[in-house]
Write a structure and sequence with these properties.
Elements (H helix, E strand, L loop, with lengths): L1 H17 L3 H12 L4 H7 L9 H37 L18 H15 L3 E3 L4 E3 H4 L11 H4 L9 E3 L5 H9 L4 E10 L11 E11 L4 H16 L5 E8 L2 E10 L16 E10 L1 H6 L8 E8 H9 L5 H4 L3 H4 L4
Parallel strand pairs: 1-4
Antiparallel strand pairs: 2-3, 4-5, 5-9, 6-7, 7-8, 8-9
The structure holds 3,4-dihydroxyphenylalanine.
3,4-dihydroxyphenylalanine binds next to strand 8 and strand 9.
């Protein structure tokens, strides 16, 4: 009997060690330990063993069962480990494999100029004011000292939704909203799209972008305007840039000036960038008209201010040597991706 048990155990261990998967292991397990398994049958036969021998044989049988069970358990672990290893191998991600480069967009030239200017003015303590592209006649014209039948409205014809609402022709409307909601000192910039009834050509578009500057405080003078704008010109075109002021007219400023920067491409000699004039037209500016201050409940005897508005498209065109404004809006990826 003892020998038989040993033989069965040996055979069982051998077969267990050869199993490759759980299914096979279950079969081998039941072949020996199952209801009619070889070892179980022997165990059932224990009752026929003589009573002296029974405890000894019983102990051997139990030991054999434990050995087989242990072996089954071990084999099960080893099969599971193999499955896991296999999985890990199959799911292996080679992090050194070169990846296809992501297609990264570039910033639009106008956006680049806009962000640069915003940062430049924020550094000097200016606040950034949001404006509205759909404005009312009041903020866009009336409050800026441009009454209904003022001839200046001709040059700034726009798109009307109805008698009151229109697409703003300039960012200057934001001056009014800012002065209405704040008390001086005010140092603000505002930027965004503006609209005019204009035919599209190399220098015109019914939609373009402006950048507005407004400073209101006690004792603000023309020399503040001059200093601020000269510094701005140097920031945009380099340290050598200077500005010149030409008398001009805007209903919302008095006096009004047109500001040119010396052309740093040719050093003022004249080239295609400055159209042979040696100067680049930069912006319109002036001292805020007393009527405009009054419209915003600011006392012009106590406060003065200067304002300026520049076209971002022009600056982008000059900076990047783009000579046709339409190229800014054509959406030609090959052109636009050059700018970073
Ligand atoms: N709003 C003017 C335009 O669109 C530009 C301008 C001129 C803005 C003088 C100003 C200013 O703030 O003071 O042509």
């Amino acid at each position: 009997m003892q020998q038989k048990i040993n033989e069965i155990t040996k055979k069982a261990l051998e077969e267990i060690s050869k199993t490759q998967d759980k299914q096979q292991l279950i079969l081998v397990n039941s072949k020996y330990l199952g209801k009619n398994g070889e070892l179980s049958t022997l165990m059932r036969g224990l009752k026929d063993v003589s009573s002296e021998e029974r405890p000894k044989i019983g102990a051997i049988l139990n030991e054999a069962r434990d050995t087989i069970l242990n072996s089954v358990k071990q084999q099960e672990d080893s099969i599971e480990n193999k499955i896991l290893e296999e999985q890990i191998k199959n799911e292996f991600v080679d992090i050194t494999t070169p990846v296809k480069p992501l297609k990264q967009g570039t910033m639009h030239p106008i956006e680049i100029v806009q962000r640069d200017l915003i940062n430049y003015f924020i550094e000097q303590g200016f606040t950034v004011q949001d404006g509205k592209e759909i404005e009312s006649d009041y903020y866009c014209f009336e409050a800026l000292n441009v009454p209904k039948d003022h001839p200046a409205r001709d040059a700034q014809d726009t798109f009307y939704f109805d008698a009151e609402r229109l697409l703003r022709v300039h960012t200057s409307a934001t001056q009014i909203r800012t002065m209405e909601n704040n008390t001086p000192p005010i140092k603000m910039i505002s930027t965004g799209r503006v609209y005019r009834v204009d035919e599209v050509d190399a220098t015109h578009s019914p939609m373009f972008s402006q950048f507005e500057i407004l400073v209101v405080d006690k004792n603000v003078t023309m020399s503040d305007l001059n200093g601020t704008l000269e510094k701005l010109a140097k920031h945009l075109f380099g340290e050598k840039a200077k500005i010149r002021l030409r008398p001009s007219y805007f209903p919302f400023t008095e006096p009004s000036v047109e500001v040119d920067a010396t052309c740093t491409h040719c050093g003022g000699k004249g080239c295609s960038v400055c159209k042979q004039t040696g100067f680049i037209e930069l912006l319109g500016a002036g001292m805020v008209h007393p009527n405009v201050l009054r419209n915003c409940n600011i006392n012009p005897d106590e406060y003065t201010g200067f304002a300026a508005g520049l076209g971002l498209d022009r600056i982008a065109m000059i900076k990047y040597g783009i000579d046709d404004m339409r190229e800014l809006y054509d959406g030609d990826i090959n052109l636009l991706k050059q700018f970073k």
